[in-house]
Amino acid sequence: MYSLVFYVPETHLEIVKEAVFAAGAGKIGEYEACCWQVKGQGQFRPSDMANPFIGQSGLLEAVDEYRVEMVLLKEFKDAVVRALKLSHPYEEVAYHFIAIES
After folding, report:
1. Would you state the torsion angle of the CA atoms of residues 89, 84, 7, 11, taken in this order, to the nearest 10 degrees?
2. CATH code of residue 29
3. Handedness of CA 17, 22, 26, 31 (dihedral sign)
4. Residue 79: what pLDDT?
5. Residue 55: per-residue pLDDT
6. Are 83 and 18 in contact (CB under 8 A)?
7. Are 97 and 80 in contact (CB under 8 A)?
8. What is the 3-state secondary structure (H, E, C) of the chain?
9. Is the full-model pTM beyond 0.70?
10. Tens-digit pLDDT profile for residues 18-67
11. Facing residues of 42 across strands?
12. Is the pLDDT of residue 102 over 80?
């Protein structure tokens, strides 16, 4: 089992969550669409080669985003990553997995 952590702007929060839920994430026993989320602020500076969804190349940008966490079984990992990347507005999606022993 894994915990998926990703960051997403508020404008796309529900779209991205629904996509990864549909791909198999967020199921705990008889419950589905389970996650934990908290609002924060991310920052980045796009390079001259980037095509940013928000901000301009070469300029530091701060964006209100959500950190979202949810569990998933190993068998759904590839499908969840595909869903995350396809539904997320950013050119480079910030995410990571944490292995869970239970």
Report:
1. 40
2. 3.30.70.120
3. positive
4. 98
5. 87
6. no
7. no
8. CEEEEEEEEHHHHHHHHHHHHHCCCCCECCECCCCEEEEEEEEECCCCCCCCCCCCCCCCEEEEEEEEEEEECHHHHHHHHHHHHHHCCCCCCCEEEEECCC
9. yes
10. 999 999 999 999 999 999 999 999 999 999 999 888 889 999 999 999 99
11. 63
12. no
What residues make up the domain containing 59? 2-99
Question: pLDDT tier at 74 (50, 70, 90 boundaries)?
Answer: very high
- The per-residue pLDDT for 86 is 98
Number of domains in the chain: 1
CA distance 98 to 102: 13
d(CA 30, CA 16): 22
* Residue pair 94/51 in contact by the 8 Å Cβ criterion: no
Cα–Cα distance, 94 to 4 (Å, whole number):
11
Token digits of residue 92: 């480079």
